[in-house]
Design goal:
Elements (H helix, E strand, L loop, with lengths): L9 E6 L4 H13 L2 E8 L9 H7 L3 E4 L5 H8 L4 E4 L7 H21 L4 E5 L20 H17 L4 E5 L3 E2 L1 E4 L2 E4 L1 H12 L3 H7 L4 H5 L3 E2 H11 L6 E4 H4 L3
Parallel strand pairs: 1-2, 1-4, 2-3, 4-5, 5-6, 6-11, 7-10
Antiparallel strand pairs: 8-9
Length: 250
């Protein structure tokens, strides 16, 4: 698997690399053999009990521990890397989500630009597009902070890296997720709904026409495709934005 490559051979830093999506991005990066070194920066260091199929890849990565909002720690972590990918995100109050899903990545983008990072990747949301129902949610509604934070981070990334951005916009990301000793088979939910939302002809078209819900049901993607699409797109010379249908091709 490690024979893949297609040049690059410079260092990659994954922010939030010990999370569900982040671990799969790291796995895709290591398996691609594109990078001379893969590192991760997050608050709690290396995952304590990764899934078995990810363990070998994660064992090849240096996990740096620190707070993304600590200027010195962030600058030290980002310095010297060719590419940075942000998988930072969390759920909670609207203020909390806006900070973690948006401000954290904005801080990383600004520091990356200052430190000469050439490529910046961001795991965004299927609801971040012009006219999105998600972006029209009033501030009092649940998830407003999540979508607004992602939108703010996208805008800063497009401004700072017009030719060096990779943005992936998944909806619900499914696969097997490990929480402690519990395995959550999210694919048992995501895969069937993805089929209904995309592969039943007129029925799927009808579902997709429903504001917000239709977009979510038609934008579900496998977590391994998110990882592969992000890493493979870092090879592109121009900026890249991948919607759910594009992500599923990987």
């Amino acid at each position: 698997m490690a024979q893949a490559s297609n040049t690059i051979k410079k260092s990659l830093l994954v922010l939030g690399g010990n999370g569900y999506v982040g671990q799969n991005v790291i796995h895709a990066a290591v398996q691609s053999n594109l990078f001379s070194e893969v590192r991760s920066f997050n608050r709690s260091g290396a995952p304590t009990s990764p899934q078995q199929h990810l363990a070998d890849s994660l064992a090849q990565v240096e996990f740096l521990t620190g707070d993304i909002f600590d200027n010195a720690a962030r600058e030290d972590a980002i310095d010297g890397h060719y590419a940075v990918v942000s998988c930072i995100g969390a759920f909670g109050s609207n203020d909390f989500m806006k900070k973690i899903c948006g401000d954290a990545t904005i801080e990383a983008i600004q520091t990356s630009k200052l430190k000469g990072v050439q490529k910046f990747g961001f795991v965004s949301s299927a609801q971040v597009y012009e006219g999105s129902a998600g972006l029209k949610l009033p501030p009092s509604m649940p998830m407003h902070g999540y979508f607004q934070g992602k939108y703010n981070a996208e805008q800063r990334l497009l401004e700072s890296y017009p030719d060096g951005h990779v943005i992936v916009r998944p909806g619900f990301i499914y696969g097997t997720r490990k929480l402690g000793s519990v395995q959550l088979p999210l694919h048992l939910v995501g895969a069937p709904i993805n089929f209904v939302g995309n592969h039943l002809g007129p029925i799927s078209s009808l579902i997709q026409s429903v504001p917000f819900v239709g977009k979510e049901l038609s934008s579900m993607v496998p977590v391994d495709s998110v990882g592969r699409s992000m890493i493979d797109s870092l090879k592109e010379e121009k900026g890249v934005i991948l919607e759910a249908a594009d992500i599923r091709k990987f």
